[in-house]
Amino acid sequence: MNFHDPEISSVDLEEFMKCALVEAELAGQAGEIPIGAVVVIDNQVVSRGRARHNEFQNQLSHAELNAMLDGGERLWKDYHRAVLFTTVEPCPMCLGAAVMADIPHIIFAFHDNIGQSRLSIETNPYINRHIRSYIGGVLEDKSIELFQRYAPDDLDYILRFQK
Fold first, then answer.
1. In this structure, are residues 125 and 99 in contact, taking their beta carbons and an 8 Å threshold?
2. Which has the closest alpha carbon to 39: 79, 93, 96, 3?
3. Is the pTM of this model over 0.85?
4. In whole angstroms, what is the distance from residue 154 CA to residue 137 CA?
């Protein structure tokens, strides 16, 4: 499931996914699951996040949530132009947070069939009306490489659910 709003046609998806991959690398180096995210507004990274579960001893410290929380006033004012880039398809919690933050565009690298977030977009009218772009597979191989290096057991688990 990919759909693309023309509003973001000028956004270089690979360039900004590379920024999210830097965050994922930092997470992996810190002993976290290698997931990173950035929020982009008007072709500028306005906030960054990475998985920090162990550091904060908190299961809610997902990369996407951390990036959105770091968005501050810029995300508050310009949410309607925001694009969330993440190295793994958002889980249901992070998808819900993006919807509640009114972020209309979500771009991800690695498809995650465990969380089934795309089913929420397809079947829930409230979620569907908030998300205008949902694009997966951008630099997916780079995200998978990070999992192979830092979290091979997690990758094996995720791949068991891939179609």
1. no
2. 79
3. yes
4. 18
Per DSSP, the residues of 31-85 read TS---EEEEEETTEEEEEEE--HHHHT-TT--HHHHHHHTTHHHHHHHGGGEEEE
Residue positions annotated with a catalytic role = 64
Number of CB atoms found within 10 A of residue 81's CB: 16
Q: What is the pLDDT of residues 43-72, one digit of tens each?
A: 999 999 999 999 999 999 999 999 999 999
Of the chain, the end-to-end C-alpha distance in Å amounts to 13
116: left (phi over 0), alpha (psi -120 to 50) or beta: left
Percent of the chain with pLDDT over 70: 97
Q: Fill in the amino acid letter for 42.
A: D
According to DSSP, the β-strands at 44-50 and 82-88 are unpaired
